[in-house]
Amino acid sequence: MTIYIALLRGINVGGHNKIKMADLRSSLEQLGLQNIKTYIQSGNILFESSEPEETLQKKIHNKIEEGYGINSSVIIRTAEELQQIVSQCPFSDQMISEASTSSKGECLHVALLPKAPSKFNSDKLLTYTHEKELCVINGRDVYLLFYDSIRNSKLANNLKKLEVPATVRNWKTLTKLSLMVEEFNHKRSEK
């Protein structure tokens, strides 16, 4: 069984696309997902399954659409991929520290994509440059560092140039999910 993390786009944001996490867990159990855990209300789901990512992505998307009438992108990463995202941050501790002192809110985010954008579309995004908004594209993940704020950020608004659905999570959420994976693995090894 593989440990997966599903990240739903636009769930419980600004009073829209409301889903109670307890209801979501119950719905996903019906798909055969096991050991389901959620983190905060924005659609971060940790679970185990023996099915491949693409199959899970479709099943979860369809279940949410049928059960809640919400058409939400579902981005999936394995536990190993999530650990790599956290361990391979391209920004130095000094850059993050400087950004956090001037940023309004969280300064470090990752946009997670279901597939890597084309080189052409990546280049389109990377043509936007601003000293207070930085990004690094690493396959299916786009690291974003803001010295001001992600809100009203031109860089964040330009993510659509990648022409791939994306869901963005702040670093605090990703590191918490990474810790949940570690706890999950620890409990697994005790059995």
TrEMBL record:
Species, as recorded: Lederbergia citrisecunda
Gene3D superfamilies in the record: SP0830-like domains
Source domain of life: Bacteria
SUPFAM superfamilies: SP0830-like (SSF160379)
Pfam families in UniProt: DUF1697
Chain segments annotated as transmembrane: none
InterPro entries: DUF1697
Protein name, per record: DUF1697 domain-containing protein
